[in-house]
Amino acid sequence: MTLPKLSIAAKLYVIFALMAATTLALSTVAVHNARQHAALTQEFESANKGSLNVERVNGLIYAVQSAARGVVMSPDAKAAGPYLADLNKFNNAIDAVISDWQTSVRAEDTQYFHEFSIRISDFQNFAPELARIATESGPGEARGWAEKNFPTDTRNQLTRDLERLSRHYADRAAQTYAQMSDSIARTGLLLSVLAAFAVMLAVFGALIISRSVARPIGAITRVTEAVAATLGLAYGYAVGLAVGVLTTVVACGLVAWLLLGTSPVVRVDDRVLRAGRARLPLGYVGRRAVVSPADTTRLRGRDADPSAYLCVRSYVRASVMVEVTDPQDPHPYWLVSTRRPEALLAALDEATASASADR
């Protein structure tokens, strides 16, 4: 069944269902985007944290070297004491940074971090041994040991490792930021499309209500106002203002009830065409056609056939003319007002075809 054949209620139900589905889609997209954005934000923060750890370890390595230089250049053990304290403090700080760093290492960081962690561990072994020799034998012995055993190759390789880790984390942060920007752009476009679709549905629903409900009610309101105003003025002038106002209010309600309550119902089922209280069996439905608003006005006015059956409403402009083929029926045709003449004609075509096939 096509959309024009649907009732007003069915059309509105479809629109409301689509609007509900659109709202659900908007919520789903928003929730999905929020989760994706949170994951990407966490990834971005992890990359930034990795870059920060690279800088922290690099600074601590320089601090360990400076403290070791202060130890070996001191004239005696007493003078070397503050440098030994700094040496142990900075070496322990490297341990703390590495332990914290390990908690945020991702799968794509493992290869770089594993090689770096082995070399930083080798480098850290230098400080405790230097401190032991300086404490037991003095700074002079520590200087001689350091000149022979300082891990120069390890230190140079650590510099290259840290540079490589820094580039890796910078690339990861840039890639994640690009993914976040693309995700925001895609989500914005999708939400805009869904929102535009929801607005379109709302406008379409408003048009249906306006054409099918508001206009007829507007015509009824105008008739009601005219009748009520006439009665109100008459009684108000004759009896008094209070009676005139009361008459107007009662007349408005009464006329509206009469117009709405007595509006004829037009329906097609599998046996008859119903227009108001009249029934026309489908077997006697002859030619039928949609009548334009201008022709409807003419056929229910000066060109009206006195013997025709008219089921018309003044506030409905279009109509359908149905020929009556029953020789016993005094009416040559029916003229039925309807806001959906094409739908009524299509329903008649379908019903008469079905009735003919059954016979």
Could you walk me through the main structural features you see in this protein, from its secondary elements to its overall organization?
- The protein has helices at residues 8-73, 77-102, 110-124, 126-137, 139-149, 152-238, 241-261, 293-299, 341-358, and strands at 266-268, 272-275, 278-281, 285-291, 309-311, 319-324, 333-337.
- It contains nine helices and seven strands, in the order H-H-H-H-H-H-H-E-E-E-E-H-E-E-E-H.
- The two termini are 23 Å apart.
- Helix 1 (8-73) runs antiparallel to helix 6 (152-238), helix 3 packs across helix 6 and helix 4 runs antiparallel to helix 5 (139-149).
- The model is unreliable at 234-239 (pLDDT under 50).
- A four-stranded mixed sheet has the order 4-6-7-5. Strands 1-2-3 form a three-stranded antiparallel sheet, covered by helices on one side.
- The chain is rod-shaped and about 135 Å long.
- A hairpin with an 8-residue loop joins strand 6 (319-324) and strand 7.
- It folds into two domains: 3-197, Four Helix Bundle (Hemerythrin (Met), subunit A), CATH 1.20.120; 266-358, no CATH class.
- 73% of the residues lie in helices and 9% in strands.
- The protein has 359 residues and is α+β, with helices and mostly antiparallel strands.
